[in-house]
């Protein structure tokens, strides 16, 4: 085996090794930017809305909720603006809206977003958080206008 | 959905074909380096290349099929990265076997055993994917895993099965098999910490006072961190295992920080670590030896022979390396396990070693990304814990071999020879893929229910 062949094998191996690393990086890259969005009424040429990823704060997603409204219960009519921060609901002073509802716990439920979707999460409340007939046990996605019940209070996300 | 078209519909991509492509490249790297070792050492392709290559390719593709079948939405990059590392490690061990054989050394061979452990590790990987269909099930067994971790850590100091080798009492001996329970304890501890912190994080995060702009936790909440510290000091004292001690404590501090979002824990943790390190330096001869070897290895060349040959090996490799089979990594004692990174540095050079380190970095990046996108707190913390333990381990090994930090004795994940390490790291990857599958799977449809009356807890009228 000549010296030259061995050198070529050595350099070729290193090249393939880095080719592997770079193609892994490119798969990761398409994984970040390549998620397909189905927006029925959007023209083909228009740029797809980029989703906020990682720590950078980008502009709000089209169709994202802008406020959390109390539809029914003692505080009916009150609302709180939402952006990307989680919203805490309960009777405690650290809640976004202090609910005067005896059937609501101090820290009852939390609305949070991952940048794409809003989720409601029950924080171990006594009387539970319900979407329809289902009790919320783990974070559950909520769409615009979905009624979420906490005690006697009903809240929903609106545009 | 109240307004059609207002909420974008997400089509999650599985990317399984991309995974297959990367996996084939990773297998090619493994088999190619095996062939290159034969060509470099004696000018011909090694005799068993078809059988060994076939075994390796079949188990790796089997893992891919298992992921396709049981975790269809899982991260596409993790498996190929891990297969590539495992292949490079196997070939390096085989190459050092040949070197040791030529030297007439009594050690070895290790490659056969390592290949068997790899196959077993991949079988465990598939078993975890099949058996654990939802990682949240593990949360129910939080305290069981905590107890298991402590039991595993205590095993090596028990009289009959405990087994001291090379100054550290971290092995257990069961008949012909020796096993390093700390590797399994790492996973059990990550699960325990994740489950414990999900339940307790509010108490740990909300109470406290502010000193010098840093939120410090309350005195009574320091209990768990002090316990974690005591456990790691206990490992240091009774098992003389610097690496595991550092790994467990670092893992715990980082998970506390992630769970509570309070940097105060990092300050407390660093302070406690400094105290522990000073105590270790003052009380133990072997810690002092490691420290002195780090500061000036040439002051005692006989004592620090291993580290010095490793450094010369890295220098011998240079930028592009000697090429497979053309260096002399067998001169470094334990060049196939603790010092495998310096062996790789010698044969593949800085270019190859950097590629290996980038692959490690990408594995950690995928782990942290899985944590970021995970929807439930337990999965988030578990993914953070597993990837941070992986990162810490690589940092401690690579830093020790390159003399950035004092040498401690952990194994380079997936590369170094050692059955318990290989198997447990495959299990870690399976757990990460399981969490990732849950995370990337499309969220279940939520139907808006019009009538609330039947579920109304309190009748209003």
Automatic annotation (TrEMBL), chain A:
The keyword Phosphoprotein applies. Residues 87-136 form the FHA domain. It comes from the Bacteria. This is FHA domain-containing protein. The keyword Phosphoprotein applies. It holds the Pfam family FHA. Residues 38-64 are annotated as: Disordered. PROSITE patterns: FHA_DOMAIN (PS50006). Signal peptide: none annotated. Keywords: Phosphoprotein. Transmembrane segments: none annotated. InterPro entries: Cell_Proc_Reg/RNA_Proc, FHA_dom, SMAD_FHA_dom_sf. It comes from Aeromicrobium flavum. SMART domains: FHA (SM00240). SUPFAM superfamilies: SMAD/FHA domain.
TrEMBL record, chain B:
It comes from the Bacteria. Coiled coil: none annotated. GO terms for molecular function: lipid-linked peptidoglycan transporter activity. GO terms for cellular component: cell division site; plasma membrane. The chain crosses the membrane at residues 20-41, 47-65, 77-94, 114-132, 144-162, 182-199, 220-238, 244-260, 265-284, 348-365, 377-398, 410-433. One of its GO terms (biological process) is regulation of cell shape. It is found in: Membrane. Keywords: Cell cycle, Cell division, Cell shape, Membrane, Transmembrane, Transmembrane helix. InterPro entries: FtsW/RodA. Pfam families: FTSW_RODA_SPOVE. It is a multi-pass membrane protein. The keyword Transmembrane applies. PANTHER family: CELL CYCLE PROTEIN, PEPTIDOGLYCAN GLYCOSYLTRANSFERASE RODA. This is Cell division protein FtsW. It comes from Aeromicrobium flavum.
